[in-house]
Amino acid sequence: MPNKPGSENQDEILFERRKFARIDGTFVVSYTDITTQERKSDISQTKNISLGGILFTTDKVFSSGAILKLRLRLPDAPDYINIKVRVVESRQRVKGLLCETRAKFISIREEDKAYISKVVESSLKKRKKISKDGNSEIQD
C-alpha cells in the first residue's frame, strides 16, 4: 500500500483511519467463538482498546469476520462487560502458543461503552500529564 503524500510510514496511515483514540492496556478478557459449534471459552488479556475495538492475545488464529463474544474486566465496572466483536485480523506471534487478534465492536451496551470511555479518557489524561511534565512517573 503506497504512503499518502507527507506520510512518514505505514503506522501513520493506520492511525489516520482510526475513529477512536486507542490506549495500551492490560485487562482480563475471556472470549468464545460463536461462529463455530465449538463453544470453548479461553481467558487472556488485552493489549490495547478503544471505543471501537480491541487488540487481545488468543491461543489460536481466528478467521477474518469471525464473531466472538467477549467478557472484559475493567476498573470501576461492577461486573464483566459483555461485547460481541467481529475479527478484523488475527496473526500468530509465537508458533503454536500466542496470537494477536484485532476485533471491532459490533454489539455493546451504552453503559458498558461508558466504562471503556472512562478508562480511555483516564489513560489519555495521564499520558498528557506525563508528556507535559516531561516525567515518566504518574502523579496522583
Would you give an account of this structure?
- It contains 2 helices and 7 strands.
- It has 140 residues and is of the alpha+beta class.
- Strands 2-3-4-7-6-5 form a 6-stranded antiparallel β-barrel.
- The protein is globular, with a radius of gyration of 16 Å.
Brief synopsis:
The protein has helices at 10-17, 110-133; strands at residues 23-24, 28-33, 41-49, 53-58, 67-72, 81-94, 98-108. With 140 residues, the chain is α+β, with helices and mostly antiparallel strands. The N and C termini lie far apart (43 Å).
CATH class: Mainly Beta
The CATH homologous superfamily is called predicted glycosyltransferase like domains
Radius of gyration: 16 Å
Largest beta sheet: what is the strand line-up?
2-3-4-7-6-5
Mean pLDDT, all residues:
83
| Structural class based on helices, strands and sheet pairing | alpha+beta
CATH architecture: Beta Barrel
**Distance linking N and C termini:** 43 Å
Query: Largest sheet, if any?
Result: 6 strands, antiparallel, barrel
By DSSP (H or I, 4+ residues per run), the number of helices equals: 2
Low-confidence stretches: 1-16
User: Beta-strand percentage?
Assistant: 35-45%
Query: Which shape, going by the Cα principal axes?
Result: globular
